[in-house]
Amino acid sequence: MTATAQWQRTEAGYTGVQPDAEWAREVRELAAQRDAVLLAHNYQLPEIQDIADHTGDSLALSRIAADSTASTIVFCGVHFMAETAKILSPGKTVLIPDERAGCSLADSITAEQLREWRGRHPDAVVVSYVNTTAEVKAETDICCTSSNAVEVVRSVPADREVLFCPDQFLGAHVRRMTGRSNMHVWAGECHVHAGINGAELAERAAAEPDAELFVHPECGCATSALYLAGTGAVDDERVKILSTGGMLEAARTSGADSVLVATEVGMLHQLRRAAPDIDFRAVNDRASCRYMKMITPAALLRCLREGADEVRVAERTAQRARASVERMVRIGNPGGGE
Ligand code: SF4
Fold this sequence. Notes:
Bound molecules: iron/sulfur cluster
CATH topology of the largest domain: Rossmann fold
Radius of gyration: 20 Å
Strand order of the largest sheet: 4-3-5-6
CATH superfamily of the largest domain: NadA-like
Helix content: 25-40%
Number of strands: 14
């Protein structure tokens, strides 16, 4: 046992372990013993991002997981993301450091609710954002990301109804972009987006007229900003709607002194690393996802020591969910430059 051995399980997550050099050494050693690749979503704590083999958005990480030769995937992100990795890599062991790391957006629709909704629109095509459970994906015709949602909906014949879930802001954005009147949108949302509300975004942009504005809509937390940018509430020229890869690239090439970032605050870590001379600031410091932050140093250590928590998806569900994810991958640019 080492100095970092003890952790406590609390409601907010596992605590009691410092991310020091000894922790880092043990994490890397255990990962090697388990033949595991460590993946960290952009919204993870900085120390988790720094120890990971790869960081990125959920889809990019799922693809890395599928291509990896490692037999075990440790997914430092929220549960639906680890499930997506399992759906795309059914033969691999997928671990999440704390299975309680959920997602308020994914929780806003259940498979039963979707079946009931579909029952009322039997000829409709169901399009679901990737922030959904495996069971909801299994009831879906085509999944989408924020990068290809418009193209996915455009791919549906004009005379077919579309049921879009679960994100109401992304849905409203897609409806406006496609001009589609036969599209029904589920009233779901991510709790973090409330920290990036329209009024605040417009106010911050007005107060800092020289700052560029980066909006990263992946993950639901900034889809309200995406919607607002589309209404013209903020000057178009200053707003850049970017994927993770696009945002890091824009950071490296931007001539701006300061950039306001409308997304979950975890993304700031990657941006500051990519362009240390730019003053990156969150539109709202409270835009932090408590589920993402449940993947603590203690949780990661426990995961690697105990081989827990393992993510399992029933074979039939995984098969049907995989079909809707694969249709998504074939349309437009789902990874948005990742
Ligand atoms: S930021 Fe929002 S959409 Fe993303 S994991 Fe957290 S609750 Fe879910």
